[in-house]
Design brief:
Blueprint lengths: L2 E6 L9 E6 L8 H10 L1 H13 L10 E5 L7 E6 L10 H18 L3 E4 L11 H14 L6 E6 L2 H11 L1
Parallel strand pairs: 1-6, 2-4, 2-5, 5-6
Antiparallel strand pairs: 3-4
Helix pairs in contact: 3-4, 4-5
The structure holds ligand AR6.
Ligand AR6 binds next to β2 and α1.
Protein name: O-acetyl-ADP-ribose deacetylase
Organism: Streptomyces cinnabarinus
Length: 169
């Protein structure tokens, strides 16, 4: 059984085995959570991302997949980078968003991580409606077969926290 916890705050302040990053396929950083993780985690994370690009992801990490690096100076052992889908009005990409959570947990299992913190993937720059994103995130984590003992959703603002809380009840 995986315990699901909600926290409102900054994911870079969490003490967990693995922090999930809402990255982009370049793996070379960006704004939002991605920017915050690289800023606080320091240059070691980007150095590993660059190596991963060179060795495995010349064309970029595909949407819905996940890959781990060191967590640098963050209070975690690993950062798991996943690439959420950009929201579309015309195409149902919810399978790709669910895949981000499933694949991140699969990578966490491979690493032996027991506590994992997730942001609300795709709900910022990638414009996914918060309520729908919360439903997909919660359903996917609830139904995942994983050794992870605790998943913490770290929601940046009250609106996000409320949307996730509504899915708990
Ligand atoms: N802690 C927790 N949540 C945060 C934090 C933080 N420090 N900062 C922002 N959020 P986004 P995306 C919330 O845009 O939509 C980047 O440039 C934010 O309020 O970070 O998946 C990447 O490089 C929102 O609810 O990620 C990609 O290019 C959620 O995190 C692109 O953005 C996700 O917002 C990915 O877009």
């Amino acid at each position: 059984m995986t315990t699901i916890t909600l926290v409102q705050g900054d994911i870079t302040r969490q003490s967990v085995d693995a922090i999930v990053n809402a990255a982009n396929s370049s793996l070379l950083g960006g704004g939002g959570v991605d920017g915050a993780i690289h800023r606080r985690g320091g240059p070691e994370i980007l150095a590993e991302c660059r190596k991963l690009r060179a060795s495995h992801y010349g064309k970029g990490l595909p949407t819905g997949q996940a890959v781990a690096t060191t967590a640098g100076k963050l209070d975690a052992r690993w950062v798991i980078h996943t690439v959420g889908p950009v929201f579309s009005d015309t195409e149902d990409r919810s399978g790709l968003l669910a895949s981000c959570y499933r694949e991140s947990l699969r990578v966490a299992d491979e690493l032996g991580a027991r506590t994992v913190a997730f942001p609300a993937v795709s709900t910022g720059v990638y414009r996914w409606p918060m309520r729908d994103a919360a439903r997909i995130a919660m359903e996917t984590v609830r139904s995942a077969r994983t050794e992870v003992e605790e998943v913490t959703f770290v929601l940046f603002d009250e609106r996000a926290h409320e949307a996730f809380a509504a899915q708990l009840s």
